[in-house]
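new request in #modeling-help
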Amino acid sequence: MEIIILPDATTGGAYAARMIEKLVRNKPKAVLGLATGSTPIPVYQNLIQKHQEENLDFSQVTTFNLDEYLGLDPSHPASYHSFMREHLFSKLNIPQSQIHIPDGLAPDIEAHCAAYEAAIVKAGGIDLQLLGIGGEGHIGFNEPSSSLTSRTRVKTLIPRTREDNKRFFKPEEAVPHHVLTMGIGTIMEARTILLLAFGDGKAEAIARSLEGPLTARIPASILQMHPKTIVLLDEGSASKLEMKDYYRYVYEHKETTHSIHREENELLS
Ligand code: GLP
């Protein structure tokens, strides 16, 4: 894992968008794994700006979202379909046929999950998977105790996640108990994983994921086993990391023949 501690979420969003831009410019048919929640919003804002002002073309890109609520209509304002439309897809030029989000209303959920997995394979696999992290260490909606080799399937949300996500629903609405999510095994097959976490509220989950033992109690801890995971943090989310000075040291002494790092350093200077 490469752990990068940045000044704030704005810088983190710019950094992540720059990585995605580099991928899409080098590989116009890139396959992106996308996430919802407040964390990726600055990334999406930067991508929209690059599309509108710097000719970043998404017309050949294919996307797969991590998750969706079970039983929620795609037009519901709190659905992840609505979220993605509002924060990204309505402002980019990705053809609808290249956008994939699990369908919470699919009549045959098992078949739908299997087809979702097959579509990822058919697209050539995910080049870059963007991830946020839940307060209890979930990735996608893979809650604690999820099998670390799981595939796309239905999961039951833990009370804390329902509480955290209440803000996206009207006060009189109940947050669904069930969701569809890419599995941990599915996520782990992405060629590059970009995990973003900002703010003190994520400090405990980040410390346990990056420095704790690998355990289904903290699903994101599986990322320790991934060959290319980059973690973008701010001071708040990094605050409980025992080795944070070491991560800063490693980043400062990064060998600069790796162009991505040279360019990112320029971006940050
Ligand atoms: C949601 C999503 C996750 C996301 C997480 C954190 O439950 N399913 O993919 O990473 O919560 O959300 P936020 O970025 O708003 O903190």
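bot summary: The chain has ten helices and ten strands.
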